[in-house]
Amino acid sequence: MENPLQLAFVNFKKDSYIIVEGKQNADRFYIIRSGKVRISKEVEVVEEEGGNTLGPGDFFGVVSTMSSHSHIETAQAMTDCTLICVQREQFGLLIEKNTPVAMKIIMGFSKRMRYLDEALMRLTIKNSTEADPSHLFRVAEYYARQSLYNQAFYAYYQYLKFCPMGQYAVVAKERMDKIKPYSKAVYLDGSTEEFNRFYPKDTMVFSEGMPGSELYIIQKGSVKITKIMDNSEVLLAVLKPGDIFGEMAILENKPRSASAVAFEDAYLLAVNKANFERMVQSQPQIVTRLTTLLSERIWFIYKQLANTLISDPLGRMYDALLMQLEKNRVNLKSGATYGFDIGPKELIGLVGLSSGEGNMTIRKLLENNKFRITENKLVVLDVTEIEKQTEYYRKMQKIEKARKEGASQPSSF
Q1: How far apart are CA 296 and CA 227, in angstroms?
Q2: Which one, 111, 142, 150, 401, has the greatest CB density within 10 A?
Q3: Is residue 105 in a domain?
Q4: Total structural domains in the chain?
Q5: What's the farthest any 2 CA atoms get from each other in the chain?
Q6: What phi and psi, each to the nearest 5 degrees, are found at residue 322?
Q7: Is residue 103 in some structural domain?
Q8: Domain contains 305
Q9: In tens digits, what is the pLDDT along the chain, a chain of 413 residues?
């Protein structure tokens, strides 16, 4: 039997609020049929690319709805509006019936993702350079110095493949010959035949700076996403079974902006561009998964952008831990213990501190007797402590901001 997709039309009067930031249980999003909508955020770190005014054909509320998190923005009608309302459970059907809408959402997300990612890099690492194949040599050198020969060999190989006449070609060749006996790198040239792949722990799936032609779905194991910045490795994420990564290369034909390394033995499904387009039409559930995943990532980047505004490094750490709890949907129950899957080094990387300042801040964090380190992972003995501390530091930040703004206003008599 044909399953009809029945979408509701809703009208909003000028100036009325459609969604409100911070409200829980986002379960529907909107596509504008007529009228204009303004999007705003309490913490406006970067203006949205293309501005904050939306018109017919644009959509909003997808990030919170598809990631099942609280709203990250407020939407207000600038004129009388007619909107198409899509419930979360209707999304799969919407895609099946209307592939172009699905592709528009995914492409829109992918652009927003890259834009926000670059903004985050500028704010945390203070530089934003488009990675290119010559960067592969710097990546290889970093890993060689750390004696991480699997990663180093892989990056040297890619450097020579994409820059055969590059300025460091001779050096790269010599270094590769030297470390070859100590390295195990797999799928150096990808593979058009094998979609199911096995990456042993600490082998590279791809390196930042190289062109990409595949996305990956984790079947088993885990993968870490990292970036070399100011001569240190910054951990961006640890991905688990069911997660999708590397989709930017397929959606935008841009070089890889980060590296992916098997965090433990990983079984991956590799999908190239041709297969992806077939998948969109034949397997709407993959598109739903990808949209959910991109929503989750965009939600998380917004939270990270807001984190950069907390000036106290300890406040930033509490906020980053709260983000991890929200991301993993941990119930904040008084007295509940929780073991994080990250340790002090990863936490320092997440908040973008230098190792000196980071270690000092970790020491301060551990002065709080609700925290322990067990097998190099952080454990909190009461999850509500993280929420309490984060709220305190966010409040202090607001007071500080208001004080600064007050000081910059000319006094009136």
Answers
A1: 20
A2: 150
A3: no
A4: 3
A5: 78
A6: -65, -40
A7: no
A8: no
A9: 455 678 899 999 999 999 988 776 678 899 999 999 998 877 666 655 556 889 998 888 888 888 888 788 899 999 999 999 988 888 878 877 777 777 778 778 877 777 787 777 777 655 445 567 888 999 999 999 999 999 999 999 999 999 999 899 999 999 999 999 998 888 888 766 778 899 999 999 999 999 888 889 899 999 999 988 777 788 888 898 988 898 877 777 778 889 999 999 999 989 887 787 777 777 777 778 888 888 888 888 888 888 888 889 999 999 999 989 988 888 889 999 999 988 998 898 788 788 899 999 999 999 999 999 999 999 999 999 999 999 999 889 888 888 887 776 665 54
CATH of the domain at 393: 1.10.10.10
Query: Quick check: 287 and 101 in contact, CB under 8 A?
Result: no
What CATH number did the domain enclosing 229 receive?
2.60.120.10
Domain that holds residue 391: 310-407
Same domain membership, residue 340 and residue 366: yes
SS (H, E, C) the chain: CCCCCCCEEEEECCCCEEECCCCCCCCEEEEEEECCEEEECCCCCCCCCCCCEECCCCEECHHHHHHCCCCCCEEEECCCEEEEEEEHHHHHHHHHHCHHHHHHHHHHHHHHHHHHHHHHHHHHCCCCCCCCCCHHHHHHHHHHHCCCHHHHHHHHHHHHHHCCCCCCHHHHHHHHHHHHHHCCCCCCCCCCCCCEEEECCCCEEECCCCCCCEEEEEEECCEEEEEEECCEEEEEEEECCCCEECHHHHHHCCCCCCEEEECCCEEEEEEEHHHHHHHHHHCHHHHHHHHHHHHHHHHHHHHHHHHCCCCCHHHHHHHHHHHHHHHCCCCCCCCCCEECCCCHHHHHHHCCCCHHHHHHHHHHHHHCCCEEEECCEEEECCHHHHHHHHHHHHHHHHHHHHHHHHHHCCCCC
Q: Which of 73, 97, 121 is the last residue of a domain?
A: 97
Bridge partners for 217 per DSSP: 244, 269
Q: How many CB atoms lie within 10 A of CB 337?
A: 11
pTM of the model: 0.70
Looking up tokens 């995943």 gives 293
Same domain, 155 and 66: no
Query: Is 154 contained in some domain?
Result: yes
